[in-house]
Design brief:
single chain; about 425 residues; eight-stranded parallel barrel
Length: about 425
């Protein structure tokens, strides 16, 4: 569910016409809906309420300070994966005791920074990292806290792209589940690192419940075995990955369905639970507005050239990701979409490639897409772009990054100004 709707033949974000934002802020622009963001956070929090979990928003999905602050104010902790993300989480006002830090390649400086900040826990990915964190904490005269990330060897299902599957043996993440007991044995008497939890994250996005059930069942069994051997496991962090609707309204399960299956597996256990959702909270809370610059024909193909490129939204070319794209003001009222559905056939439509201005053939937002007729100057909305959209944008082709706007009811605020040409060269020295 989200608050991007067509009213009077025109796309609105909450009560603000999308065209007003484009006119005032320019394009391309990321537009987020505050109500959608908070709705999804609360949905996760309510669904898992019986477990009283710690919900750590995965900041990598959309790390704008304003977005982070809204979620922190609503009660969220943060899942970070670099020194930069930790810096942002702290800057946004997150209580360090609600910050967890994952990632296979934490540097010594990043580890020091996190210990210094007093984060809740490291999610630790290897034996070498255990030894390194223990050493660094020792040098600092502090005790670090960690959870061991296990790789449960679970197939997340065919709908998860190979590049975003994490919980299979051939992936670089975590410690093989069979090795986990040995690791706990080997490192039970570390002086400066207490490994008190277990972490897993099986991939992103996950459309099915079964992989979660399998992974958590395996984790529960492992915790039982560890407990019998005298290890005290205080929490299980089940990662993120809940999918959202990209292609049609029923594509992804609401989180309540996941919770129905998962809460009974964890209720009454003597350990606490943490979650790390990113996409579910912010995915459908953001769109990109882009303007049609030109149209052209190439062989049999029709191209609609827009002012947002792969530097603004890399998901289509990197993961073959589908994003629903539609005119903000369809010229023909019959083309006001009843639902955002990949099978929607526009009245008086055409099949086009929607491409950006970047000098690469891979620079497209959609290929072979049925779209109502568009002309130069028309505005298009690229939906479900809130997660891993702006966060993965770049300055490639020396394009200043887009502005970010947050809508709240009938008001909107620029929460990141559009970059300038001066911003592009600011860090460089001649
Ligand atoms: N926890 C860990 C350890 C993760 O690695 C991730 C995502 C999450 C939580 C959050 O997953 P989410 O709830 O957002 O699905 N760029 C890709 C997605 C990469 C996900 C990386 N890790 C995309 O655009 O689809």
């Amino acid at each position: 569910m989200d608050f991007f709707n067509y009213k009077n033949n025109e796309l609105h974000c909450e009560s603000v016409p999308a065209s007003r934002i484009a006119a005032e802020v320019g394009t391309p622009v990321y537009v987020y809906s505050k109500a959608t963001l908070l709705h999804h956070y609360r949905q996760v929090a309510n669904a898992f309420k019986p477990l009283n979990p710690t919900i750590c928003y995965s900041i990598k999905s959309c790390s704008n300070l304003h977005v982070c602050k809204l979620l922190i104010d609503a009660g969220c902790g943060m899942d970070v994966t670099s020194g930069g993300e930790l810096f942002r989480a702290l800057k946004a006002g997150c209580d360090p005791k609600k910050i967890i830090y994952a990632g296979v390649g934490k540097t010594d400086d990043e580890i020091r920074m996190a210990i210094d900040a007093g984060i809740a826990a490291f999610n630790i990915e290897s034996e070498a990292e255990i030894e390194n964190i223990d050493r660094i904490a020792g040098e600092m005269g502090k005790t670090a806290i960690g959870a061991l990330r296990i790789n449960p060897d679970v197939d997340p299902g065919h709908k998860t792209h190979a590049k975003t599957t994490t919980g299979k043996k051939e992936n670089k993440f975590g410690v093989d589940i069979e090795r986990a007991e040995r690791v706990f044995e080997q490192y039970k008497t570390l002086k400066n690192l207490r490994i008190g939890g277990l972490h897993l994250h099986i991939g992103s996005p996950i459309y099915d419940i079964a992989p979660y059930v399998e992974a958590i069942t395996k984790a529960n069994a492992l915790i039982d075995r560890l407990t019998k051997k005298g290890h005290k496991i205080e929490w299980l962090d089940m990662g993120g990955g809940f999918a959202v609707n990209y292609k049609h309204p029923m594509q992804a399960l609401p989180v309540t369905e996941h919770a129905k299956a998962l809460v009974p597996l964890l209720q009454g256990k003597p350990y606490k639970v943490a979650l790390e959702p990113g996409r579910y909270i912010v995915g459908n809370a953001g769109i990109v507005l882009t303007r049609v610059l030109y149209r052209k024909q190439g062989g049999e193909k029709k191209f609609v050239i827009v002012d947002a490129g792969m530097n603004d939204l890399i998901r289509p070319t990197l993961y073959d990701a589908y994003h629903f794209i539609w005119p903000v003001k369809p010229a023909d009222a019959k083309n006001v979409p009843a639902a955002r559905d990949e099978d929607l056939v526009p009245a008086d439509g055409e099949t086009v490639d929607i491409v950006g201005p970047i000098c690469e053939s891979g620079d497209y937002l959609a290929k072979g897409r049925a779209l109502p007729q568009t002309k130069r100057g028309d505005l298009l909305a690229v939906f479900t772009a809130g997660a891993y959209g702006f966060a993965m944008s770049s300055n490639y082709n020396n394009r200043p990054r887009a502005a970010e706007v947050l809508v709240d009811g009938d008001k909107f605020t620029v929460i990141r100004r559009r970059e300038t040409y001066e911003d592009l060269v600011a860090p460089e020295l001649i």
